[in-house]
Amino acid sequence: MFRQTAFGIALSTLVLASGLTTTPIPGHTSSNQSTHNQPLSIVSNQVALSTTTFKTTALEKSVFDQINRYRAAKGLPKLTLNANITKQARIHSQNMANGKVPFSHQGFERRVKAIPLIYNSAAENVAFNQGYSNPAAEAVTGWVDSPGHLKNLKGNYNITGIGVAANQQGEVYLTQIFIRTGRTGIVRQK
User: Fold this and answer.
1) Cα 20 to the center of its chain, rounded Å
2) Do 106 and 149 meet the contact criterion of CB atoms below 8 Å apart?
3) Taking every annotated instance into account, which residue ranges of this chain make up the domain SCP (predicted)?
4) For 143-155, how does the pLDDT look when each residue is reduced to its tens digit (9 = 90+)?
């Protein structure tokens, strides 16, 4: 007779959607040019309980701190956290965690347009993982190891927002939006 334990054990999984970058094109009706990279999936043999719960605001702070440490180590200026950008990143992570939108960059342009800032360029990194004790560190490591995501991390951006959401299945969704503000650019108002 085969017995299964009462608690779920899952292999840890990290999935990164393509790093997305947009840059205004002067003189064109369409103001953004997108570049996409292929999704990256990393499965680890690390085993963890699937019933883990996370404090999402602590994970957001952890991602922010790790990204700024990485940028400082590479001689890049640190990013400033922006509440309006964080709000949009959180909404996207919550929508992915709740299954309202697929794990993707779907709606990126709408998210950026909803941020009331003058900006020159924008980018987004998203990650999904499950089974890791530190999902923020796993996402950042995955982004650093992925050329498209790394391009965004090292990009000429000055402000950012990070949103993290988890669901009852222990899936953790992370969204980081990068913005370069400036005196010239596109004005987005609500």
Assistant:
1) 10
2) no
3) 65-178
4) 999 999 999 999 9
Helices marked H in the chain = 56-73, 83-97, 108-113, 135-144, 147-153
d(CA 114, CA 106): 14
Burial of 101 (0-12, 13-18, 19+ CB in 10 A): middle
- Global pTM value: 0.76
Q: φ, ψ for residue 144 (rounded to 5)? A: -65, -35
131 SS3 class: coil
Both structure tokens of 130: 């499950």
* Sequence letter at residue 60: E
Query: How far is C-alpha 79 from the chain's CA centre?
Result: 15
Ranges of H-type helices in 21-82: 56-73
